UniProtKB/TrEMBL annotation:
Residue ranges occupied by any ABC transporter domain in the UniProt entry: 2-248
Residue ranges crossing the lipid bilayer per the database entry: none
NCBIfam families: sufC (TIGR01978)
Naturally occurring in which organism (per UniProt): Sulfitobacter guttiformis
Family, similarity comment: Belongs to the ABC transporter superfamily. Ycf16 family.
Keywords annotated in UniProt: ATP-binding, Nucleotide-binding
Name of the protein: Fe-S cluster assembly ATP-binding protein
């Protein structure tokens, strides 16, 4: 589904190489987790895939279902089924959460040549999904993320994901800032979306999220590369021993 080959990325304005040849294949129906020391390039990978400005791809490729992602505008990538839940969700003053969600859902439907969701249908679906994430009616009316707590922002990202039903979901440290109960809610929201046709890339520092969202594959990223891949036991190894042994293996 998501096929990344030898992806190399530098900062646009500086001579600083951040990704130094990332190889990653996320098959439909699977959950891949990426862990790694601070500053290893995990967020940069998610930003580059989603089309954030400020980065220059200097080599390699990233394809979603055989289509070149790197050639597309960010909104085209989203319409083709890519979704990124941000590590730091942005506040959008003046834009109601509900309006934002409905506009996003319908813009993507339009881009795919589908009919827009009616107001009544949208309301029904958004209320159901918001309830599952314990997002109340008042939060749906407020401007997007404005004044939301850290955990509320993260749950709101999952609500967006649930509404957009993307094919490839990238979650960048969605667990940071969540209390124990909210982490369970978020994990339930992700697990409810797991399906044969959908892939997940979950960036996290902690094994505890992976207790709830069971990954098929765990990758360790360091210094702009994926240096080791394995099963869920790799996350446990990191939790117990840190990164020193794994880093030493590849030097
Ligand atoms: N716009 C930028 N300007 C300067 N340095 C940058 C910029 N974007 C990324 N970097 C650098 O690139 C490296 C990788 O950053 P990135 O945020 O991708 O790491 P990360 O693995 O997600 O880290 P963390 O686990 O701390 O979130 C870091 O050294 C960071 O300082």
């Amino acid at each position: 589904m998501l096929s990344i080959k030898n992806l190399q990325v530098k900062l646009e304005d500086e001579d600083k190489q951040i990704l130094k040849g990332v190889d990653l294949e996320v098959e439909a129906g699977t959950v891949h987790a990426i862990m790694g020391p601070n500053g290893s390039g995990k967020s940069t990978l998610s930003y580059v895939l989603s089309g954030k400005d400020g980065y220059e791809v200097t080599g390699g490729s990233a394809m979603l279902e055989g289509v070149d992602l790197l050639d597309m505008e960010p909104e085209e990538r989203a319409a083709s089924g890519l979704f990124l839940a941000f590590q730091y969700p942005v506040e959008i003053p003046g834009v109601g959460n509900m309006t934002f969600l409905r506009t996003a859902v319908n813009a993507q439907r339009k881009a795919r040549g589908e009919d827009e969701m009616s107001a009544a249908e949208f309301l029904k679906v958004v209320r159901e999904k918001a309830k599952d994430l314990k997002i109340d009616a008042e939060m749906l009316k407020r401007p997007v993320n404005v004044g939301f707590s850290g955990g509320e922002k993260k749950r709101n990202e999952i609500l967006q994901m649930a509404m957009l039903e993307p094919k490839m979901c990238i979650l960048d440290e969605t667990d940071s800032g969540l209390d124990v109960d909210a982490m369970k809610l978020v994990a339930d929201g992700v697990n409810a979306l797991r399906s044969e046709g959908r892939g997940f890339l979950v960036i996290t520092h902690y094994q505890r999220l992976l207790d709830h969202i069971k990954p098929d594959v765990v990758h360790i990223m360091a210094n702009g590369r994926i240096i080791k891949s394995g099963g869920p036991e790799l996350a446990l190894e990191v939790e117990n021993n840190g990164y020193a042994d794994i880093l030493a293996e590849v030097v």
